[in-house]
Design a protein that fits this description.
The protein has 332 residues and is α+β, with helices and mostly antiparallel strands. Among the domains are: 2-65, no CATH class; 69-191, Tetrahydropterin Synthase, Chain A, CATH 3.30.479.30; 291-332, no CATH class. It is 57% helix and 22% strand. The strands form five sheets. A four-stranded mixed β-sheet has the order 7-6-10-11. A hairpin with a 5-residue loop joins strand 8 (91-94) and strand 9. The radius of gyration is 64 Å and the shape is rod-shaped.
Length: 332
């Protein structure tokens, strides 16, 4: 029995020893991290997320975050509401006129896993990367860039242009050290209140001047529009007047032609009537010459139709009385 207990105790001891050795020889690398395997202080490889064997007693692991890290400067450190991992005071500088300014900004960066060994050679921890690399570089770069501009440019200029300029310089600088810049934003610089008031007053005058120029331009455009419209109206009136005059001339010509045609037609009608009468007389004379009894017959017909008494005489037949006018009525 004693021997059996001894065997069981030995087995348990071996298992426990194995578990202890396993626990002390395995390291867990969390997601969003990368660890540099070191031996005697030198990098010998990388340990990626998951379970990794620990190096020997002469080595170790130096782990870095590969997540996006935020560094932000704020104007009021005591009452800030920033959620950045690293918070700092504003950067300061002088404009090219020598005016003091403060400026705040925010940036985000991360360590690509493949650059961990290179970064480890200079910066042993995440805090060292932020303090000795990111913070040091950006706080030196900001005044070196903005000090070249005037107060007007910093306060009233296009802030996006200035921000892009700083971002391009900072990105190139950090990439040369193995850190990738994800985002950078420069916030509006603050100047002394007196200068800000003066700049705002100047800007207001500039805007007023622009407004006046705009109003003058609009007035000139309106005057030009009215001039063009007046010229157009005059031209239209001239066209209408010319059209009316031409219409009157055409109407007068048409009336004159109509009168001429009517006069000609009347003259032609009279001429035809005269020709017809002459022709009738000519034909009648010819008929009388050919047949004298026709004349006597026509005289008889005329006497009968006219109700006149004709008496023969040496010179022909003479009417002596219209029997229709002198005939007494039955009452007489």
């Amino acid at each position: 029995m004693t021997r059996r207990y001894a065997v069981v105790a030995a087995s348990v001891f071996v298992v426990l020893l194995g578990l202890i050795l396993l626990a002390t020889s395995v390291a867990r690398v969390e997601a969003g991290e990368v660890c540099v395997v070191t031996r005697n202080g030198a990098a010998t490889g990388l340990a990626e997320p998951g379970l990794n064997l620990k190096p020997s007693i002469f080595g170790g692991l130096a782990c870095f975050s590969t997540r996006m890290t935020t560094y932000e400067t704020v104007a009021d450190m005591e009452n800030n509401i920033s959620k950045a991992q690293y918070i700092d005071y504003p950067s300061k500088g002088k404009t090219n006129e020598g005016l003091n300014y403060e400026v705040t900004y925010i940036l985000q960066y991360h360590l690509p896993p493949e650059n961990a060994e290179t970064v480890y050679a200079k910066y042993k921890t995440d805090d060292s990367i932020n303090e000795n690399l990111v913070k040091a570089r950006v706080r030196a770069l900001i005044p070196n860039t903005l000090d070249n501009y005037s107060a007007d440019k910093l306060y009233l200029g296009d802030l996006n242009v200035l921000s892009d300029e700083v971002e391009d310089l900072l990105r190139a600088d950090l990439e040369s050290q193995g850190i990738e810049l994800d985002w950078f934003e420069l916030k509006k610089p603050n100047l002394d209140n007196k200068y800000e008031e003066a700049i705002e007053a100047k800007a207001l005058k500039v805007e007023e001047t622009k407004q006046k120029v705009l109003e003058q331009g609009l007035a000139q455009e309106e005057a030009e529009r009215q001039r063009i419209q007046a010229e157009g109206d005059a031209a239209q009136q001239m066209i209408v007047a010319n059209q009316q005059a031409e219409a009157a001339i055409v109407a007068a010509q048409a009336e004159a032609e109509k009168t001429t045609i009517q006069a000609q037609a009347e003259a032609d009608k009279k001429e035809l009537s005269a020709d017809a009468e002459a022709y009738r007389v000519e034909q009648t004379g010819a008929a009388l010459d050919a047949n004298p009894t026709v004349l006597e017959w026509e005289q008889i017909q005329a006497i009968r139709d006219a109700n006149v008494i004709y008496l023969p005489s040496d010179s022909g037949v003479l009417p002596i009385m219209n029997i229709g006018e002198g005939t007494p009525t039955p009452d007489e």
